[in-house]
Amino acid sequence: MSVPGGGEDRWAGVPAEEQGQSVPTHPMISPHSERGAGRGGRQAAVFPVNVQAPPPTGPPVWDGPPPPGATQVSRTPIERLQAVVDRISIRWRLTITYGVLFFMAGALLLFVIYLIVGSVMDSVWPEIPFNLDSWPAAVVAKAEQDWKWYQHAAVYEVGKELLSRSLLALLGVGVLAIIIGYLVADRALKPIQQMTATARKLSDSTLAHERIDLKGPDDELKELADTFDAMLTRLNVAFDTQRRFVGNASHELRTPLTINRTVLEIALGDPEASEDLKALGRTLLEVNARNEQLIEGLLLLARSERELTVRKPVDVKDVAETAVEQLAPRAEEAGVTVTAELQSAHTVGDPVLLERCVSNLVENAIKHNLPDAGRLWVRTGMVEGALIVQVANTGPHVPAYEVNGLFEPFRRLNAERVDSSKGAGLGLSIVRAVVRAHGGNVTAVPRDGGGLVVTVRLQPR
After folding, report:
1. What is the assigned CATH class of domain 220-304?
2. Is-contact 383 35, C-beta < 8 A?
3. By the 8 A CB rule, do 367 and 423 touch?
4. I want to staple 102 with a disulfide (CB 3.0 to 4.6 A). Which of 37, 177, 284, 338 is the partner?
5. Domain boundaries, the chain
6. What is the per-residue pLDDT across 268-306, written as a single tens digit (0 to 9) for each?
7. Which fold has domain 310-458?
8. Is the backbone of residue 425 left (phi > 0), alpha (psi -120 to 50) or beta?
9. d(CA 37, CA 382)
10. 0.90 surpassed by pTM
């Protein structure tokens, strides 16, 4: 096992033939990445460039031609227009709706005014302002015709001037109407924004005691907010009941298991016990130990899903060092070589839970490794403003569709529920619960060549 600053073996990587490529890098924490440098010139978690990092995760980015049998999906102009409309936010949809309605109403009003002005001018247009009785009939007809032409020309010019000025006024007022419409839409959507913010906050928290508590008239939005609050209350009661049941049941089961272990140890210590009895006692003691491990895991899982009661500054480097040192004998016994690249990164949380989180990751990587010459990598540091804890290992191939299920309780890869030789199946479930309680997230991706890469992201202090 190598530790930080441990000489030439640091981040020795894995053989190229095992990785399937020459110089692997990991997209989460890349040894060649310059983006890991913090702001203000402070460098954060910059790993050596002359050594290999844990192998890349997941399949490479595919940018080639369509695979055989794939056909390009063609869309009609209406479908393309619908796709563009679907990308517009509801705020802008309301704003555009307000603007279009205003312009349509304004255009209709201008059209009506134009018709009214033309009709009024025709009705009030004066007759020829001089006497034509003594004039020849041909001259009178020509004069009346010219006067009519002059009337129509005057009405046309007045209407044209009125229309041009009105359109300019409509355009200016229309722009103002769009701005006002945007502000009105924003204010009308405030309750929905409040509900969205509350739902997003609750989705990132293990505690659902916060409510929207929308103030205002008893309209449709307030009814929606009250219904959402009632749903949160019922969910909170259900979750609390489930956590209390798990905790209480686990506590109740600890006492008989402890008694069983004591009785078995006394029986095994009896010098007059037969070999068959001792063999049976050792088997029962192993079963009892697995049951105790299961109970402890359930208690820790129930505790992790509650709100944090302890918040202290924690350096994940120290947490990872402790976990690696404690599990070093087990790794050596399993023939797993541990490589650690640990950089200081500080957060605020429960030190005990965070240590158990990293220990579970390392222990899980040791258990599910190659039976001979396995490798394990542990990294901590800051990358692009996020605190990173990353554990990668060699091991059996993990299908991509199985990865998310590994975080479910009692879920083990390619193992029946009755098979407890590699644990109770609570390790990654506890990791996810602890990380969520600290406001972070955890992701896992299959490693090329077999194994898994688990990355924990936490908020830095």
Report:
1. mainly alpha
2. yes
3. yes
4. 177
5. 90-188, 220-304, 310-458
6. 888 888 888 888 888 888 887 777 766 776 676 666 666
7. Heat Shock Protein 90 (3.30.565)
8. left
9. 8
10. no
